[in-house]
Amino acid sequence: MKVKKETLFPKTKIQWLWENMKGRRVLYVIGMLGTVVYNILQLTVPYYSGRIVDLFLSGADAWKNMRTNSGLFYHLLILMIVFTVLRGVIVYGDCMIYEHVSQTVLYRVRNFLYDKIQRQDMTFYSTYRTGDLMTRVTGDLDAVRHMVAWVIRMVIESFSLFGVVAIYFFYMNWKMALSLLIISPFVFFIIYLFKNKVAPMHAKLREKLAQMNTYAQENISGNRVVKAFAREAYEIEKFDRANKDYAETNKETSMVWLKFFPYVESIANLMPVVMLAVGGVFLIRGELTMGDYVAFSGLIWAIANPMRQMGNIMNEFQRFSAASKKVMEIYYSEPQIKDALDAAAHPNRFDGKIEFREVSFQYEDGDLPVLHDISFTVKPGETIAIMGETGCGKTSLINLIPRFYEPTKGEVRIDDIPVQNFRLSDLRKQIGLATQDVLLYSDTIEGNIAYGDSSIDLEEVEKFAKYSAASDFISKMPEGYDTVVGERGAGLSGGQKQRISLARALAVRPSILILDDTTSAVDMETEKQIQEALRHLDFSCTKVIIAQRISTTMMADKILVMQHGRITEMGNHEELMAKKGYYYELVQLQTGEDLV
Ligand code: DUT
Ligand code: MG
Question: Where does the record place the ABC transmembrane type-1 domain (predicted)?
Fold first, then answer.
């Protein structure tokens, strides 16, 4: 597994979020303004209650005021109720806006990521584990959504509440305000220290989650292997460990705040004490009215709560930071193999000439080249067979034709045009590939065969099934072509899966058909039938067939024998027999075996 280097992104996290809010930005700004407004409205209740206290309850003229000016009393009371209701309405609308915008961002980025992942090349898939990718499009993205829906809102809420109340405090009585606010900078300092401690924890936490998801994913999709080796207990324990690890890290992360929490809490709790002590003195000295005192104490929470909330916000902010980094890594990733800028459109069929010119190849994460100076040509319509012991580079070789990988040296050409000059879609549409590991979708057999070209009708699907000697067993199934096969083709035998995969490759009527050990699990008789059918397809097609059986390779126009990434023998059956080399020995071995 390759370790990814730290990537630099073209945008900061917040810029990136803003970019993905396109179309909803105005709405979001309205939402943010709404947050400011409803927090300002929080002041109305203490303000009016302060005035009511001063005018009608505590002042010397309280009773007189009440008798002569009861209209104002009711007026203030009604205003208090109106503002409270108004505030409720704004909060409601505001929540809707945040939710709407965050869901839009989530939807947009998730689709974009899925699209990105789909278009990546093979190297990407061998770099990232499925569980890790799944974590990015689920958990990590949810942290991003949470940022838009909650964290930003809380930041604005806290700061606007704090700011407005601070201004109001100074407006009422600057000395009292100063006594209350003088300790607040300490909170920022504590939060800053907290941030430095908690940031790496969130990065760690996120890795643990991905690890746990990877175990779960690999286990569920690899359950057959687990069962075959009776390793259930081991796997359960492995998952349990990952789960515990994640839970522990979660606890550890929460504990970080607990270290800082007492300080912030003490400062917040100090506020009412200061209020009582300093406020009391000011009250006695007549520097503060009883109404102002009520207003101050009624709003003290608006100073203390944002301080308490700070830790929470910073925590969530760091969670977003760790998660968004993972999301942006995929968001800004570019496949190495993509259409060349000057790639010409080539919508037509290929003649089918394939040429390798001194091609060498090495996997990015590999230490040694797996292909060395491979040169050969296949004429249109010909069949070429590739043989060689396991691990000699056969699959690697054919993967260069549809440009799944790029050669490190040399050139692969189709119809005398280097493959890089085609658009990837044009190139791959003309190639029918049956891969070595057969992967079928959980769909009907018909759906699986018609995967590459959904426009073909059942009659044609049946024809391709006949070519691949699959029609017999399919028609024997109770639901025939409508039989739904399980995930990865569960419910079918290895040979049956291979034949459906062959039918799927044929169904696109490719100009070039590549079969990677596609008939290895079918019996000799069936294989003969398939080879015969392949010779009489109703469309022209160059065939590249990787096979181990002489019966398959014998009829090929050209046979390549590979050893350790090099072509050691090349020619048709007769020529190679005459050469009395590896191929000859293989024939001896296989025909000898057949006689036993
Ligand atoms: N290899 C990698 N990374 C990969 C795939 C293969 O390093 O993603 C190595 C393993 C092997 C060599 O490349 O040493 C050739 O592998 P290939 O799959 O091409 O071998 P094969 O001839 O197709 O073997 P088999 O007959 O087992 O399918
Ligand atoms: Mg292979």
Answer: 29-319
Instruction: Count how many domains the chain has.
Output: 3
pLDDT at 595 over 50: no
Locate 297 and state its tokens: 């104490």
Mutation probe of ligand 1 site: the residue of 394, 498, 549 with most atoms within 8 A of C-beta: 394
Residue to mutate, 360, 368, 392, 437, ligand 1, most ligand atoms under 8 Å from C-beta:
392
Listed residue (76, 83, 298) closest to 172, CA to CA: 298
Pocket test for ligand 1, best of 370, 371, 397 (most atoms within 8 A of CB): 370
Q: Considering the domain boundaries, does residue 558 fall inside one?
A: yes
Contact present, 311 and 194 (Cβ < 8 Å): yes
Helix axes 494-506, 524-535, angle to 10 degrees: 0
* Cβ atoms < 10 Å from Cβ of 568: 14
pLDDT digits (tens, 9 = 90+) for 463-494: 999 999 999 899 988 889 999 887 766 688 88
Residue-number span of the structural domain to which 380 is assigned: 351-429+512-522+541-596
Say which ligand is closest to the CA of 371: 1
Closest ligand 1 atom number to CA of residue 126: 8
Q: Does residue 569 lie within any of the structural domains? A: yes
Same domain, 498 and 518: no
Which CATH number fits the domain that encloses residue 438? 3.40.50.300
- Asked if the structure places residue 534 within a domain, the reply is no
Q: Ligand 1 — pocket residues by CB below 6 A?
A: 126, 363, 366, 370, 388, 390-396, 436
First to last CA, the chain: 45
Do residue 389 and residue 243 come from a single domain?
Answer: no
Closest residue CA from atom 11 of ligand 1? 391
Compute the distance from residue 405 Cα to the ligand 1 centre, in Å: 13
| Distance of alpha carbon 189 from the chain centroid | 36
- Shared domain check, 460 and 356: no
Task: Answer whether residue 34 shows pLDDT above 60.
Answer: yes
Residue 208: half-sphere exposure toward Cβ, Cα within 13 Å? 20
Mind listing the pLDDT tens digit for each residue in 563-584?
999 999 999 999 999 988 899 9
- Ligand 2 centre distance from Cα of residue 353 (Å): 23
CA distance 220 to 226: 9
Nearest Cα residue to atom 14 of ligand 1: 391
Ligand 2 centre from 589 Cα, in Å? Answer: 21
Residues 545 and 496 in one domain: no
Same domain, 139 and 215: yes
Tell me if 452 sits within 8 A of 496, measured CB to CB. no
